Amino acid sequence: MPQHHVMESSTLAALIRRYINDELTETELSALLETLRTDEHREQWDTAMAALLQDTTAHGHTDPATLEKVWERLQPPPPAIHRPRSLHTIRKWVAAAALLAGVAAGTYYFTQQYTPPVKPASKPATSTSLAVKPGTNKAVLTLADGTQVPLDSTGSGALALQGNSRITQQRNGQLTYTANGNASTTLQYNNLHVPRGGQFRITLSDGTKVWLNAASDLHYPTSFGPGDRRVELSGEAYFEVAQQANHPFKVVVNSSEVQVLGTSFNVSAYGDEAFTRTTLLEGAVKVKSLQGEARLRPGQQAQIHTGGQITVKDDVDMDEVVAWKNGYFQFNHEKISGVMNQLSRWYDLDVTYQGTIPDREFGGHISRSSSIEDIIRILELSKIHVKVDNKKITVMP
Fold first, then answer.
1. Would the N or C end of the chain have less CB density within 10 A of its end CB?
2. Beta-carbon neighbour count of residue 177 at 10 Å?
3. Does the model's pTM come out above 0.85?
4. Where's the Protein FecR C-terminal domain (predicted)?
């Protein structure tokens, strides 16, 4: 049996780059092909290709002519491969590298029946697709007296006094409540509404930080009273709760409640999703519903179904859960409908389906700053066809 030796990622990356440029000798080409036959090099291939994806000088993603060359060059070498698992990895990276020409640092692949990527046709951007933009920092703040204040990334400075708190907007899409130190006896409530195509951050009067995703609402007191700290959420938010042992922090979601013991967690409670998800990153939370309760450990997710039944999922992919907060879409075996729900919220699109959509699963990640053209290109590479008309996107087989 032949002996295989793990090749340094830097060496492998150099060979891949030289392969793209037709600069390999026969000996070097043999060495590169040999790495495709062994699982020992799987991680090295991933590392090397990831580095190549992020090196814009290697693929010239702003240059259509260079893109054509990348599509032609980035193909798996021709000999038969004895390990299909390794070939699948290579094909995934090949697809990702080509996609990077339109989507910086993005990787996507469809699972189930894999189809080699097809080079996208060069199409001029239409006026309707150009009108669809990625989301931005924007929200509407409703004060206790009903006054509505539009918010975005450009405004800054003091906005209002509400009870015992001063409201200040910062330029980075953030709202801050600063309490004067005295507990409020009469609570006044504000509401922060983030529309589709938006996101926003808020620091509550107790120092708790909240990131709100698109199509979400947070209802909260301008300063907390002497008892429990209670807020209401619809949509999705990531919380970093300020610890106050004598004042539990509670998030009310529909007919359920998340009781926090000083922690970081994510709550997803969209009306068009099958269930509400509470995912714990750090600390401890207790999730209550009409049917019972569950206490979570870091890495667990409580799923509350219609009727209040709670199930707990272990070993959740934390990167996937908070990708939106960190500026990415990230999917792991996600159905087309789940992908389109996220795109609908972030790009402010109405989604319709036409015909029978293949039962495939989507995986990978991409920057949320990507244009709708880039998203369409990614879907079409996997033979999922879409049509954009103003604010409507139609998914076709």
1. N
2. 24
3. no
4. 328-395
